Amino acid sequence: MKNRRKRGGLSGGDVVVSWRRFFRFVSLFVFSFVLFSALFIFLGKIRPVVRSSVNAVLRGSVPAVKVVTIHEAVEFPDQTLIFLKYPPYSRLFTKEDLFCVFSDVNDSSKLFKELPYAVETGDYGRHIVRCSAVPRGNTVSLAVSRWTVDNSNLQVGLTHRWDWLVYDAVIDDDNSTVVFVKGLNLRPGKVADVSRYECVYGWDFTKPKLLLRAQVISAAQEIVRCKTPLSLTVLDGPRKAQSQPVKVSVRIKGSGMLPSVAHPIKRPGRVKDTKTFETCVCTMTRNAANVLREWVMYHAGIGVQRWFIYDNNSDDDIVSEIKNLENRGYNISRHFWPWIKTQEAGFANCVIRAKSDCDWVAFIDVDEFFYIPSGQTLTDVIRNHTTTPSSSGEIGEIRTPCHSFGPSGLSDPPRGGVTAAYTCRMALPERHKSIIRPESLNATLINVVHHFHLKEGFAFADVDKGMMVINHYKYQVWDIFKEKFKRRVATYVADWQNEENVGSKDRAPGLGTRPVEPSDWAERFCEVRDIGLRDWVLDNFRDRKTQRLVWEREARRVEDEVIVQMGSWADKRVGRKRKKQLKAQ
Ligand SMILES: *[C@@H]1O[C@H](CO)[C@@H](O)[C@H](O)[C@H]1NC(C)=O
Ligand SMILES: *[C@@H]1O[C@H](CO)[C@@H](O)[C@H](O)[C@H]1NC(C)=O
Ligand SMILES: *[C@@H]1O[C@H](CO)[C@@H](O)[C@H](O)[C@H]1NC(C)=O
Ligand SMILES: *[C@@H]1O[C@H](CO)[C@@H](O)[C@H](O)[C@H]1NC(C)=O
Ligand SMILES: *[C@@H]1O[C@H](CO)[C@@H](O)[C@H](O)[C@H]1NC(C)=O
Ligand SMILES: *[C@@H]1O[C@H](CO)[C@@H](O)[C@H](O)[C@H]1NC(C)=O
């Protein structure tokens, strides 16, 4: 009461009190500011900090980030991957935090900076920064743009070549380690002599005394399977955050050890007798953002429950497209897979990943769609082939023939997706794709053109093409076809631009070796009109009210896309501006 009256008055005494209060208030303010700043620095170690003007005050003090180090790098023909090593509880970098810095070997003042293509998160939560390829006579390092202090760049230590490297490793459910290797040059489809190799485990490969050796169980193509040393804690799951996980490499006896960036990962074993999913799909792709929606939604409609996307350096919107599908309830995950000519290895890697959750795993591309004319689900068809015992063994693989569709007279990419648009195909089925049971695979994990070698006692079954086929939208409108065939992915398949092998089935017949549109492209590969899947899709995936297919983007979405595009365009502009500023420095 008294206070209030005093405050309300205008006497001299009141003014004195107010000044004292003002002083107290100011000290409180200063104290809070100091406290807040201290907290800011402290918290900065734990979580990403929102960019603010306080940064300007802190610039130069560089609290937590300096201890982040570059573990190692791998050089590819068209990019450099830089593996970051974070101390426990440190703040993680985003793409916006970093610059790739290239500097002249002889004159370190000659340097240029560039935004990374992306910062990827690998297994174990490890961060991988994607920079351009290192120009000749240069070295690469990273600059932390947010905290930049001169010469505080993160230096790259060991740099490996992509084609002489152990790049991935997984612990299988029998506790053996499956090691993925580039550089062994083993013959396709053949088993190699295991006595020539051994696996090597350790934390520091420069100290041979601290390494554990292990026997090789099988070696074929680019996969080596080893007995995991029992003393290794990898079997008990990922180690605690404080300690570095162990690495594994392969030694060629009498020749030497390959460099390695691979930490063997223990996937959670099977806990229940029944697996979570009956049917899953693995695919390897690049820049599939535009087609993913239809492909995932359609296959969900016929019974697929889980999708594993092995992403080979996409630079489109695939990350947000996958996020979007996830938010709609589809169980889909993306796995960064930058390794060159490793489609077979990627499939084997995916099988082990899917093993504990999936009864069956299908391997198809994003332009391939299972078509079941009877309207049964994929799981029904699989059951149909596995319930009757076969004389040659239990069924471990189901092979589905593929029909190759042509441009069907179209010249522009269809808005409603491929299934409802392409209706003309070649008469004869071409090769086939497999659906496999992970337990039935031979330990070698050999697979050639989509077929895995099975264990003894297992057999494959061919699906009758009246029961199920794959509609392969192989020869789409020219603009799309052109991109696809510029990038052939399999290890043991020739490049289409290569003059050798011109008669190969992987080529578009009559196209030759140059990517120039033939005048009659739209009419090619059209021998049989086939509207089966189109009609089925129109009956089952069309919204009654809007008459649009469920995956078709609404008109509103087009606006969204424009905004998104403008956003990324603005992003690029900011990037360019920053580049310019840096160059000017
Ligand atoms: C760096 O210096 C060495 C020796 O002086 C020379 O051979 C080399 O070509 C130089 N490299 C570049 C990129 O200038
Ligand atoms: C694999 O290792 C784990 C943990 O050491 C152990 O509990 C399990 O029995 C092993 N499994 C096999 C098949 O050896
Ligand atoms: C998706 O599947 C994985 C197993 O493959 C499971 O661990 C995860 O919880 C699932 N996610 C959702 C959202 O259901
Ligand atoms: C990934 O793409 C690169 C080109 O960027 C290609 O050389 C490589 O073979 C591809 N890898 C796979 C596994 O498809
Ligand atoms: C498999 O499908 C065919 C054709 O639909 C049917 O005749 C047959 O009985 C089925 N077999 C089993 C084991 O379900
Ligand atoms: C795996 O394949 C190899 C070679 O093809 C064969 O020798 C071996 O017996 C197979 N393993 C099993 C468990 O069937």
From TrEMBL:
Predominant subcellular localization, coarse grouping: membrane
Cell compartments where the protein resides: Membrane
Keyword Repeat (UniProt): no
The keyword Kinase is assigned to this record: no
Family, similarity comment: Belongs to the glycosyltransferase 92 family.
Entry protein name: Glycosyltransferase family 92 protein
Name of the top EC class for this enzyme: transferase
EC number: 2.4.1.-
Keywords of this entry: Glycosyltransferase, Membrane, Transferase, Transmembrane, Transmembrane helix
Gene Ontology molecular function, alphabetical: glycosyltransferase activity
Membrane topology annotation: Single-pass membrane protein
One Gene Ontology cellular component: membrane
Transmembrane segments annotated in the record for this chain: 21-43
PANTHER family named in the record: GLYCOSYLTRANSFERASE FAMILY 92 PROTEIN
Pfam families named among the record's database cross-references: Glyco_transf_92 (PF01697)
CDD domains tied to this protein: Glyco_tranf_GTA_type
